[in-house]
């Protein structure tokens, strides 16, 4: 026979649909709980104990909660007995007091009512996500303040913490997930749907990644940077940089970037710290399409995979010092990091052959282990 605890569990499962009906303004209907219709007790005292337990927590005894309807039913072992054949909540008050959710629902109704008055477009979202409203109940008023601001200013072009919204400075950062869902609906025509980062998606300023580069031409460093040759600027500024550059060398590791400074100076050339897979930050540099691009990475599977990624952005890119001759001459039998990538890479036949050897044996030659003299004699950017 079903117990009061089991009735509560089943009632809890109906809570979300109840909340959804509230948002949809549907009246409460008698809510039936399906009970266990098999009665297997062979001892009358045990049977009587179960019956009394379920009655003790019913509306008849405590003034709210589930109601019971009884019928005289023939049991297998105890003959005819008066048993509860229907368990139901007759009113909304009975249901909520039984679950201990009355105050929670009052706040939920207040929040959803104000939300629908302010943003009718959110009705479908509210119906689908009542538990998110409950989970964010304490902050719901502030969440709507943020939504109201963006509705009126869909392209703020400000940093998150300088938005003129009367909420805590870190509030939006802490509540980005639910705010994002709401703004996707409310200002859908203004968002950048392809962007995942909140700031980019909703037209905000943000702390951009920095592109660090070395100017290898003294004339350029003196004319444009007061003699400075080790520079870092935001991606957006790097994308529009206008310098008389003909060649770019992208290196994978920071140590190698330092080494570049000791190389003979190269005219019209800069070297960029690619920082491994962060090379994605360079993908929108359109002026790369009209200059010579060279990539120098570790001779391991990741180095060639990053080269392939870079060449996916700029097909004319060439690799330097990532050949079998360099590998055979300087390899010290270091282990690499295994890869799970199986897709076809943007590599030349020679690069692919070396990549296969590295992958099969899990080998690695880090670029900083190549002696400077060898680099100086073999780094060819022509």
TrEMBL record:
Pfam families: DUF3322, JetD_C. Residues 207-378 form the Wadjet protein JetD C-terminal domain. It comes from the Bacteria. Residues 4-184 form the DUF3322 domain. This is Wadjet protein JetD C-terminal domain-containing protein.
